[in-house]
Amino acid sequence: MDGDKDLNPSYWLDACEDIDLGEFVQPDSAAASVVVPSDVDPSFFDGVLDSIPAGVTLVEAEPVVTPVSNGVKRGHGEANKSNEAEVGNRERFGKRVRVERERVCRKRGRDSRDCDVRDKGFTRRREQHCNGGRGNRDADWRDGRGYWERDRLGTSDMVFHPGSWESSGNQDVKAHVEKNNGGNEGELKKDDPKKKVAREHARKYQLDVLEHAKNKNTIAFLETGAGKTLIAVLLIKSMYDDLHKQGKKMLAVFLVPKVPLVYQQAEVIREQTGYEVGHYCGEMGQDFWDARRWQREFEKKHVLVMTAQILLNILRHSIIKMEAINLLILDECHHAVKKHPYSLVMSEFYHTTAKEKRPSVFGMTASPVNLKGVSSQVDCAIKIRNLETKLDSVVCTIKDRKELEKHVPMPIETVVEYDKAASLWSLHEQIKQMEVEVWKAAQSSSRRSKWQFMGARDAGGVKEELRQVYGVSERTEGDGAANLIQKLRAINYALDELGQWCAYKVAESFLTALQSDERANFQLDVKFQESYLSKVVSLLQCQLSEGAVLQNNGGEVSEKGCESTCADETEEGELPDTQVVSGGEHVDVVIGAAVADGKVTPKVQSLIQILLKYQHMEDFRAIIFVERVVAALVLPKVFAELPSLNFINSASLIGHNNSQEMRSSQMQDTISRFRDGRVTLLVATSVAEEGLDIRQCNVVIRFDLAKTVLAYIQSRGRARKPGSDYILMVERGNLSHEAFLRNARNSEETLRKEAIERTDLSHLKDTSKLISIEPSLGTVYQVESTGAVVSLNSAVGLIHFYCSQLPSDRYSILRPEFTMERHENPESPTEYSCRLQLPCNAPFENLEGPVCSSMRVAQQAVCLAACKKLHEMGAFTDMLLPDKGSKGEGEKADENDEGDPLPGTARHREFYPEGVANILQGDWILSGRDAHDNSKLFRLYMYVVKCVNAGSTKDSFLTQVSVFAVLFGNELDAEVLSMSTELFIARTMTTEASLVFRGCIEVTKSQLDSLKSFHVRLMSIVLDVDVEPSTTPWDPAKAYLFVPVCGIKEHEKQIDWDTIENIIQTSAWNNPLQRARPDVYLGTNERTLGGDRREYGYGKLRGQKSHPTYGVRGAVAQFDVVKASGLVPDRAANGNLTHGKLMMADSCADAHDLVGRIVTAAHSGKRFYIDSVRFEMTAENSFPRKDGYLGPLEYTSFADYYKQKYGVDLMYKQQPLIRGRGVSYCKNLLSPRFEHSEGPEGESEDTPDKTYYLFLPPELCFVHPLSGSLIRGAQRLPSIMRRVESMLLAVQLKNVISYPVPAYKILEALTAASCQETFCYERAELLGDAYLKWVVSRYLFLRHPQKHEGQLTRMRQKMVSNMVLYQYALTKGLQSYIQADRFAPSRWAAPGVLPVFDEDDKETDFLSDQETGEIAETINDELEDGELDEGDSSSYRVLSSKTLADVVEALIGVYYVEGGKQAANHFMKWVGIQVDFDPATEIETQARPPGAVPDSILRSVDFDAIEGSLNFKFEDKSLLVEAITHASRPSSGVSCYQRLEFVGDAVLDHLITKHLFFMYTDLPPGRLTDLRAAAVNNENFARVVVKHRLHVHLRHGSSALEKQIRDFVKEVESEVSKPGFNSFGLGDCKAPKVLGDIFESIAGAVFLDSQRDTSSVWKVFQPLLHPTVTPETLPMHPVRELQERCQQQAEGLEYKATRNGNVATVQVFVDGVQVGVAQNPQKKMAQKLAARNALAALKAKETEAEAAKEKENEENGKKKNGSQTFTRQTLNDICLRRNWPMPSYRCVSEGGPAHAKRFIFAVRVNTSDKGWTDECVGEPMPSVKKAKDSAAALLLELLNRLYAYNC
């Protein structure tokens, strides 16, 4: 097998971790686990299923009868036959056949016949589904003789294919479907419904132990397989029931020592109890959970299954108290010794809890002694007694072993001896020599302290530290040295134990893993390791086949001999001894020869012999235990290499210390595959010894002997099946091996005996042999408020955790440094003290520890002191967890358990009432309800609505409008009068509307009643709300009236009382068709003023049965319905007509008076403006055709039209017709409607050719009491008043905030972009956002000099997050002032005319009154306080909480623009953002007294050069030193730049945003945001740093960073050399983030040094940033540009990314064709370059196409007209002309990802003379429209041939 196909590289990164480094590395006890199958490809576990040999494991997965899909049961007999056939094939064809069979197996799933049947069914169902209910037409489609399509060879010729398109063209599609189905076959079978696990019945001995455990704390000492977990489950149930009776909730904690057991035991408890069970292991990230998250787990769950370390952590941080636990179960409790987490949980928390509050304890073990053995009965007794003391429990075992033996099968133990391996001395020596070289490199490394003083055993968590070194990044070659030494020792171990070939495979795997590691391109140590490993690989390189046969027995051996399967003569249970193997035995020739020259050791050979013994075993399932990870990883490679072992499917199961995601899930996967037989052999380290319950396992082989008695007992217990084998491999003549086996067997017997008989130990009572449990005082630091505690044991780990949480990048590894000092004293033993150095961004750097007896204790003591100090300084929370900068009030916010959106986000929406300004209140509007006193006068303020037109229009209707005034009860603010509102009346005309104060008027009560009646009549028609003046409710919160005025000059305008009286007194209002909503009266539900769509019959009937004539265009109701109502009087036909008079529906009218009036159509209830009377037309004139319609005439005359369509017999057919146009609904005139006109509004009435006119018979029309000019004038009033009301609210808010700022600016800050008006808050929000960020950053930086950048950033986030701003906005009631919806007049509440609440904003569909009531009711139910109040004229609207937060920022921006810092700070203080800072305290909190930097460092910095580049002289040089110091620089009293970067980032963001805001005042908000993003970004800043050569002064300690900066500088120099190039962050090379950071940190230093003056910062940085980005130079990101281009052209865009080693490749596909590709180490950069290349290619292609087109046009000359595009429209026209039915289209294929879909359509037409044409199949297109066009073009060509005319 190739090295690169072996194992996932990440496993090999850690495969050496169990290799002891002597004084280098400390083994970590809490190792988690991981699984590796034997042939994983580099994509983690994708290759899992590939390792299944065909036909073997799939059938043998379970020993029971297997159900097969067709209902027939297949037992083992059939399975065996297939196996034998399979074996025969293998013997004949060797390995190649196996590979091919595997491939088939993979593709077809378990049963290919099933697969075929299913495929066909699937395809058939899919076809039926796709074609819906068109069965008959499907048959038609299939009848065709063939189909036409374009030639695929690149010509554009048409090609005919016989048969249907499916049978050939669709093969690809079908193949794809089959492939997908085949692939899912395995899954379909696998996902059978889970069989209900049968409840296990407890055996007598289990019930005995259970009773014991109910009464007292118990340690159950039972064999593996005796069912200890069941006893625990029964105990949990018993405890649950007891507590349930008392009404309490149970919390049981089940502890396990290894990760695999977490999943296994949790599953068992869930299945057996049905309780809520949580499972937790380190990989799930619980280290980062806060108390709230844990609290939720405790509340929801009954049982928590976890590794002991997690419980220890949450106890230490006081997240849970020991007294909260009812039952504590310890699985494999023999681990509770020394510093194991079990032991620490008991000693630190259990024994320190009051006895009555302690939980019950239940321990489970197969051996209470976890040591190499026991020397005597007393020794055994002491160890058991100590365990009992530690667990506060009593050991309980079974006295009568007969029952146990009946239930627990013991495997047959066999010892197999192997020969000692010959030493490969020269190879060993060469590898050892390399170790020495590497060691020297490590010593010369800059990081001496790590190695020099403390051996790794005393370094505390160095294993973890190594993981960090490897997982984060290295700074020097020395950092990789430790890892490399481990690898070399792992290779040496493999060489010694397994032989040269295995060692070669190990080295090769290490090398491959390194080379495919993404980090390699910026880590020098990786290159360093690579160079050595390459040497080792070439040194060990060898092949197993070399000279194998000759060395074996001197002659050739046939292939058959090699694979011989003759019966073995040894007795059952015996194993052949390990003599030199001859060709006839069951061992590969290859191996026999390899042993001789050391390529494989006799031990490996012996293992292979043992395995071959089982090759005919039916349900073989084995575990091989090895000591080291490398052996576990390499042995499956050996098995895969040997043809004779192809009956085995092997995988590895290894422990690991890397918390890499997916690891435990992969481990679970391998264990489950071993359970179901897809893997038959596990090669495992000790991780599989304990507790893994795999009932099918029938062979356990100890390749390496166990180290302890316990491991011996535990591993034996993995053989769970009756009649299993337990095989121990021992070296022939090795005395220690023999002694161990003797000792193990004796110890086991002694333990059993002691557990039953119990030796008296009273004579040892006070000796040190028996442990005491009093915890020693003074070794812990406890927080009183929470009870969280840190002890000597946990302090070192906590300090490491703290450092890992400090802000860092990949060039700096932040970890504590320890320096030991030896204190020699002649009289007493040597003592030690330890000095701790924390990273430079911690609140303090150095701490001296006390003098202690050992290095270990000295290190613990200094860490404990550091924890105490960090807590006192606020770096630790009261839970003793690193403080992330969260503030108390921020704790409230958390994500919703139900997944609801969080407050502050755009998705979080709530109902709020619309605000009404207080000044509009007036009780005068309620008059008329009380007395009849007419003498009372009402004093009102009259404001005339002045409209000034801008632009012109040909439409005279738009200029013929009545003038109105508005009457208020109070005087309006002058700012409201100074504002003019732009109304978008027509495409070419706008109107500036404003209010002009006309003076005070006094009206009597009766006059007021008339005014109110007129107002209600007018607005009910304008807003289409049917209300009666006498009964409508009035709301004093919104009191004003609209009145008509007359008078030529402005100052002469008076109320037009005549018009008012005429309108309110007319009897026409008695006719329901003349009032609002005639549709309700007619029962059609079609709104009268419903916009152009509804005027011409596009409305919908909702909730009612269709009227008989509905569905014919424009039909609404039969005329008979209206006649029957008596609204239209009966008249004699053809009555006398007077000239100039017209007979209307209910009266006789003068023809000339009609022009300009409004009529209501009696047959439909629709309203029309009368444009003119057409004396030349009568109802007998012929009815006009539709434009372009060529079919037969539908109606002969107008009279015929009304007869057929509406059932109306016209009486006066000779009367002239009147021409009318629809009265449009009241529109929102505040939005610029005509720039991007969409929908009905585009079809506006401004140009006559776009206006639809109708011809109406006068006898069907009622003249409306309101004139056309009155209605048109009144339709402007809602938009004007919406603006006036908004402005009044803005004035009111201004007065509340009490700071002089123009009210119209405040209105801008309150108006969202969604209103679609001419202004919105987005520009101001951008500025306010930057200013707020700046002010808060400055405040936090100066207020908290001890906090690091990570804490400051989180604190800032808490202060300026949308959620917090949203809360501020709510507190101040800003929601009432905000305008967030596009104005919809239909939802607007005019005084006395309330809106219909249920209509949507788009004014499309309307509901009946009945539905309205229902909807209002529903909303009332949903809102807690029934917020929709009928009498409330302020309607409710929905606001997103992000809008509220944005408005706060916009108001900050507006106040800043209008009044500078003072105004902005005033507003921030008002809203509740507390950032005030007393200048007196500011000076004290300087980050550091000047001059604290050592002289040596000051001398090393070139201040003149830096200050020259900046053109700024620093007073305090230490600020500049800090600004250029990176965290990777070994600390020497200088902090790194992170804090300065925090403040510098905010100040630059603020200054640049401010500059752009004032520089480009007319730029739309989106463009301004793009400008800001281009100017304020890391890439841009990094290029400025390089341009001014500031990067050369960076102080850092990382050679990898050095290299990256060098590469970047080269790239930038080549960029700059390009003419006119300015990338503004879009260059081809990604900048190291560090360069942008130092630009910001220098800005922070300049700010502090210039006495915190921002103008000084801008003075320094504006020249540096020159040339700044402008709208002209703003580049668009290629990815975005390409996306927009493809969207415009309806093309499918797709990116495909792959990574090969360190290089990412990105390909761009447009419409399935590759148009661009690029490579780069960074995937994002590769995508950008690929997009740029694609754009260039597409533009070049377009240019070529245009040139070709021009050339073709020139050649064709006059034939240009012939080159028209044939589309569906052309085809439709032909069908119309020839009276053929319309063409028939169908989709024959649809596929591809969502963003790059492809459609193929087919079309044919049924010609009248030739029948159906052949089908024409178009080309694949990205849209349905284009696909149909493509097919239509083909059919047109076909018709052209058939009919020989030019279409």
Structural description of this entry:
The protein is α/β, with parallel strands linked by helices. It has 61 helices and 46 strands. Strands 1-15-16-14-17-18-13 form a seven-stranded mixed sheet. Strands 8-9-7-10-11-6-12 form a seven-stranded parallel sheet, sandwiched between helices. It has a six-stranded antiparallel sheet with strand order 27-28-25-26-29-30. Strand 27 and strand 28 (989-1004) form a beta hairpin. Helix 7 (204-215) packs across helix 8, helix 19 crosses helix 25 (629-641) and helix 43 crosses helix 47. The longest helix has 34 residues, at 1723-1756. The protein is elongated. The N terminus is likely disordered.
Output the structural class: alpha/beta
Quick one: overall form?
Answer: elongated
Helix content: 40-55%
Mean pLDDT: 74
Largest sheet: 7 strands, mixed
Q: Whole-number radius of gyration?
A: 44 Å
Query: Poorly predicted ranges (pLDDT <50, ≥5 residues)?
Result: 1-7, 22-143, 167-198, 446-478, 546-587, 657-662, 887-895, 1085-1117, 1236-1249, 1398-1434, 1483-1488, 1758-1764
Distance between the termini: 66 Å
Question: Which assembly state applies to the chains in this document?
Answer: single chain
Q: What topology, given as strand order, has the largest sheet?
A: 1-15-16-14-17-18-13
- Tell me the fraction of residues in β-strands, as a range: 5-15%
Number of helices: 61
The total beta strand count reads 46
